[in-house]
Amino acid sequence: MRGSWPLIPAALFLAVAFVYPVALLLGRSFVGSDGGLSAENYARLGESTVVVRVMLITFKIAGWTTLFAIIAGYPIAYLLATLPASRRNLLAIFVLMPFWTSFLVRTFAWIVLLGRNGALNQLLQVLGVSDPPSFLYQFSGVMIGMVHALMPLCVLTMLSVMENIDKRLTDAAGTLGARPAAAFWRIYFPLSLPGAAAGGLLVFITSLGFFITPALLGSERETVIVQLVIFQIKEMLNWGFAGAIAIMLLVVALVIFYIYDRLVGLSTLSGGDVRGGASSRNPLSWLGSKVGNLLLTAISEVSDAIGRALGALMPARPDRKPRRIGGKVLRFVALAGIAFLAVPAFFVVPVSFSESQFLTWPPKGFSLQWYREVFDNPLWIGAAWRSFVVAFSVAVVALMLGVPAAFYLVRRARRTTAIMAFLISPLIMPHIIIAVALFYLFAQIGLVGTTIGLIIGHTVLAIPYVVVTVVAVLKNYDIRLDHAASTLGANGVRTFLNVTFPLIRSGLIAAFMFAFIISFDELTISLFVTGGQVTTLPKQMWDDALLRVSPALAAVATLILAFMTAVILGSEILRRRGVAK
Amino acid sequence: MKMADGSSNSDSLKLEVRNLRKTFGEFVALEGASVEVRAGEFLTLLGPSGSGKTTLLLAIAGLNEPDSGEIRIHGDLATYLPPYQRDIGMVFQNYALFPHMTIGENIGFPLRMRRWSASKIDEAVSRILDVVQLPGTENRYPRQLSGGQQQRIALARALVYEPSIVLMDEPLGALDKKLREQLQYEIKRLHERLGLAMLYVTHDQEEALVMSDRICLMRQGRIEQIGTPEELYFRPKTRFAADFLGESNLLEGEVIGFQDGICEVALNDGRPVRGPTTTKLNVGDKAVVMIRPEAIRINAAEAGANSVTATFIEAVMTGGTTKCFFEGHQGQQLKAQILTGQPRDGLAPNKEAVLSWEPDSCVVLAHD
Ligand SMILES: Nc1ncnc2c1ncn2[C@@H]1O[C@H](COP(=O)(O)OP(=O)(O)OP(=O)(O)O)[C@@H](O)[C@H]1O
Ligand SMILES: [Mg+2]
């Protein structure tokens, strides 16, 4: 591996701060209560009815979240993929809204919206529903929060596949005699399925590691596996058992990835080609495609029959422009979905100015008392400052590690897929595993409760985003420009500074933003690594929320919302200026 | 397969487009476009990039909505009918084969949409695969075939249900020259064998000349001229048509008189020349005389009725023919094309030569 030095810092970092701790945790889970090698922790997994029950609930939540995210996200992705680029980019900003707005902010927004006297119920009452049910502290509340949180991921993944579907194919089907419904179900839908599968996979795996939404929007009945791990460590100090649960989660994730790879091929995760045709030799995928084909034919026949019946009722007029009802319905559904993603976060704003002691809707009066309370509390100020320092450091470190690795991947590497898989592996690992593993390691070397520990933990999560972003930019970058510069007499450093850097600048800014936001919004790792001694903004919000949800939290949420918006607008202006040059 | 002149009753009209107009916002992409395609006719839409060929074709296919005008397919009004209710076949430039279906499923698709039985579909598919000379490829996937083969499959898919008219938008644009020529020949053969009405789009003039019964020349959303390849080549109606199709010499002058339908023009250097005209011209109008390079004779023993003198610049051999370049009055460029190896009497650089041609091998056009 000559000339692989750009990869070494990132690889080394991940080996020490990610692979090693996870392996350590794995090893620890095989240590029994007597200190010897034993599988007793795993035996307990099966025996414990609590674990089994919680596991089932976790899968149920993840499964439904995945299903809803795909179904609700599909029309949005479809609309975005078929719009002209200019309008698509505008809508994409709204789709990404939840991603930019802090996780906890969003969850509070749902508390405001979904409560017994929340905005949603009041709307329902106005609409004539007497005594509407409370959505909060229920399965339905958890569902709404989870789908809201994960749908953007699903939409973007599906979009990356749909963008590559040739629009002419549906046109061709039309000229060949297919009604729009048949053209959709027989041509477009099968081609977009890998996107739905990839989106679903990411949502499912991420859901398995979620706990904030179930904890804040659900009840005890919606306790998920991660909460169990936290409980085992924080309350029972049972490392081995917690490790075993985490490892089981990991195994489940890996098995799902394996099945997915067999069926669809992992390369679709990054918008690559579907492995079609050739894979039909593999029996699993053969069966899948047979069943799928039957199902599709059935759906297509039914919708075609409906289409024909409608066509008989209202025949197409050759002399008049058709009214495109289908298109309008699609647009309405997709825009409603986008509104669902973009609007809720803003509900925290009016609540934060409330005079009331509780999160009531509509907020009563106008006062700045909650802001005063936040600013007077050194705990909040300290947390905010630490979050900022950590996020900034993480962004710098992740860029220093990730950018050379990305360069190496695009310019030199041979076994790109394997290296890429390694670099982005923290992304597909449930965060709780990384958190527990790091806590276990840090506890032994005294990094728990330190800012350095936080930075290390968050950097593990940020590196994949930096690598993916920079690789995407570099792939579109014409290396001949560098060659041209060097033939014109520029040395390596000057080429980079004067030619390469200005061109990839906007990509680097985006990567920096990603890393910053991921760290700024991170809770899982912080929850463990801070060890209760120091605090970050999300952790402080979490601790407070567990005690009492007060308008003070809405004030914090509003401040974070304003801060994030400023950061994003700022970076966008920076980026635009770079592009315009 | 051409119809005898004038016998175009509406029964044999497979496609009629009347006065079609299409705008994209402010931009007028089609204006007053009228075309007819008769049964068994091969009509080509030819024109520079952006002249509205694709726009017209898509309107006929029902893939975009015209602002006004009328489209009839096999006599039935179809202006705003959805594509699936039109009796058309369409071949796209990038083939638009369904990547997740086998060749057999691709070709069978329009038949399944028409609710044929499975056995009839299989039969029809294997028959059409024989016709396009790719028998036995039913179970392969599109990406396992070469570009030329994929194009033949696309053709087979558009032909298998015997539509009233087949539309093709630059179907050979993505292929290399050799393959393109081979497929041109095959499409032509299929067209004759199946007696299809075809509307073909290209911006390759040679392709248009080789394949078409008639050519419809388009320019900036309007139809410039429709006619047989011969008419367009030898009797263009406008300067644009003359310039676009083939190579031409354009000499400017002024109309000075008419005699038996032949127009007399005084060239800018004062020489009078004669030729037929395809447009309405009056005495005193500015005009251009168009002569094809191969119609010009150099220093011929008996100079034709029309002639000019010009200074010889150079000769360039282009294979079977040689192009000779001259500079005439006021630096006017002139080219003549002769067979390579043909004697070039008295032709030497910077020496004057006499270029002559027969009146009926040139056309007098409006100057515009
Ligand atoms: N959807 C559209 N929106 C706006 N303008 C369009 C659209 N489609 C076509 N145009 C414009 O209409 C004009 C005609 O386009 P068209 O595609 O018909 O040209 P063409 O003759 O097929 O050219 P080419 O030989 O390059 O394919 C072009 O100037 C094009 O920019
Ligand atoms: Mg075109």
UniProtKB/TrEMBL annotation, chain A:
Gene3D superfamilies: MetI-like. Keywords: Cell membrane, Membrane, Transmembrane, Transmembrane helix, Transport. SUPFAM superfamilies: MetI-like (SSF161098). The chain crosses the membrane at residues 51-78, 90-115, 135-159, 196-217, 237-260, 329-353, 388-410, 422-443, 455-474, 495-518, 552-574. Its main location: membrane. This is Binding-protein-dependent transport system inner membrane component. Belongs to the binding-protein-dependent transport system permease family. CysTW subfamily. PANTHER family: ABC TRANSPORTER PERMEASE PROTEIN (PTHR42929:SF5), INNER MEMBRANE ABC TRANSPORTER PERMEASE PROTEIN YDCU-RELATED-RELATED (PTHR42929). It holds the Pfam family BPD_transp_1.
From TrEMBL, chain B:
One of its GO terms (biological process) is quaternary ammonium group transport. InterPro entries: AAA+_ATPase (IPR003593), ABC_SmlMolc_Importer (IPR050093), ABC_transporter-like_ATP-bd (IPR003439), ABC_transporter-like_CS (IPR017871), Mo/tungstate-bd_C_term_dom (IPR008995), P-loop_NTPase (IPR027417), Transp-assoc_OB_typ2 (IPR013611). The keyword Cytoplasm does not apply. Residues 15-245 form the ABC transporter domain. One of its GO terms (molecular function) is transmembrane transporter activity. Keywords: ATP-binding, Nucleotide-binding, Transport. It comes from the Bacteria. Pfam families: ABC_tran, TOBE_2. The keyword Transport applies. GO terms for cellular component: ATP-binding cassette (ABC) transporter complex. Belongs to the ABC transporter superfamily. This is Putative spermidine/putrescine transport system ATP-binding protein. The lineage of its organism: Bacteria, Pseudomonadati, Pseudomonadota, Alphaproteobacteria, Hyphomicrobiales.
